[in-house]
Amino acid sequence: MENKNLQNNLFLKQFNESNAIAYNKNFIANPSDYNFQLLDNAYRNAGKAYAQIKIAIETNKCESEYCAAELAKIKQLEEAPNNSLEFLTSLMAELSITEESNYDPNNNYSFTAANSLMSGKPGFSRTDGYNAYLDLLPDGSQQIVFTGPAFKTTIEDPFTFEILEVDDPLVINNSSLSALLDSDTSLVVSTPDVNAGMLLLLPETGLFVQEMINENKELKANAKISEEFVLKNPDGSFDYEIIDLGNNQGRNALKYDLEKIDKKVTPFINAEVGGLMSSEQDVIAAWNVYIAKSTSVEEDDQMVQDANSGNEYWSYELDLPLQQDKKVLFEIKYKEYFMKNYLKQFTTNQLPTVKEDGAVFDLEEAQKAKAQKFLDDNDLN
Q1: 124 and 217 in contact (C-beta within 8 Å)?
Q2: Where are the domains of the chain?
Q3: What does the alpha-carbon distance between residue 281 and residue 112 come to, in Å, rounded to a whole number?
Q4: Considering only CA atoms, which of 164, 154, 155, 147 is closest in space to residue 113?
Q5: What is the CA radius of gyration of the chain?
Q6: Of all residues in the chain, what percent are helix, strand and coil, respectively (each to 5)?
Q7: Which region, left, alpha or beta, applies to residue 142 given φ > 0 means left and ψ of -120 to 50 means alpha?
Q8: I need a labelling partner for 361 at 20 to 30 A (CA). Which of 164, 251, 353, 378 fits?
Q9: Cis peptide bond N-terminal to 81, omega within 30
């Protein structure tokens, strides 16, 4: 199924970052009107209405008993300007998330368009066909409406079956936005920094001795996994794997008890995932941007710029609340991602801690010696 949010978000991101519009002669030759006059238009008639109600109260000509309705309306109008400022401040903070480097482009693309309009980006002015309206509603709440070329959708004509493009304005109510934010739910989802979280998780797993962790609770540059997770021979010597360096040369590398390591880190990973699960929309963002394809950190950086998780994405509209199968899958894939991108580097090609065992040697002779040792240790001579 076509993912319009992904396509449109990536297009808007590319449009805003490309600087191409600077070379559009028609654009630079004409004025651009970014004065949407949100507050001016919203309060154009508010002063007159306020005065009329005040007069009605003072002259005892109210339509409601004891002027109850009129007094409530006065209170509503007096509180409205501050409510408008709080509304616009909260909205701008939410919309600005669309500019984060790891923003999930599977979010509703209308938020990216609205942010482009509100932040005055080239190509999103009134001159370009965009507009925004702040309305004071009779119930005391307020709404903002975004319109323009990016706020459209397509429908099928039921009679001709022709595909038509129609207006699809983005409408946000301040009371609904406040309710979301008060319940720790975001209008626009900020993707958790999974990579930063995993870097912090490494020193907490118990795989590293305290000497390998600095005062900031981060691993030191020379950090190595504790010796208790290194495989040893029955005689207590280290059990090495032989690395082929080419030209019949090799060297030893430590071997690790991967099953023991897995058992050690799993509770910590489960706890980390449990924390993420406290916000399921964060889980979807992390899945879409980082976890879905079990890619590398470098590949993820490119995916954010390109096609993200593609056909494996989870939808905010369709997949929330998350079903148990998706929660289990996320935990499995999160662990795979951690093992591949963060832990593997500490269990691969690690030099021996015994200095003389780290020397480069003749590969053929070493392999013969290892085979002979196996025979000796198992009484197979």
Answers
A1: no
A2: 4-182, 191-381
A3: 18
A4: 147
A5: 31
A6: 55, 10, 35
A7: beta
A8: 378
A9: no
Tens digit of each residue's pLDDT, the chain (381 residues):
468 899 999 989 998 888 888 898 888 888 889 999 999 999 999 999 999 999 999 999 999 999 999 999 999 999 999 999 999 999 999 999 999 999 999 999 999 999 999 999 999 999 999 999 999 999 999 999 999 999 998 888 888 889 888 889 999 999 999 999 999 999 999 999 999 999 999 999 999 999 999 999 999 999 999 999 999 988 888 988 888 888 888 889 999 999 999 999 999 999 999 999 999 999 999 999 999 976 555 554 554 544 455 568 999 999 999 999 999 999 999 999 999 999 999 999 999 988 888 888 888 877 787 776 766 676 766
241: left (phi over 0), alpha (psi -120 to 50) or beta: beta
Query: For residue 379, which amino acid is it?
Result: D
Q: In what order do the strands lie in the sheet with 249-254?
A: 240-246, 249-254, 361-362
- Could you give phi then psi for residue 165, rounded to 5 degrees? -95, 125
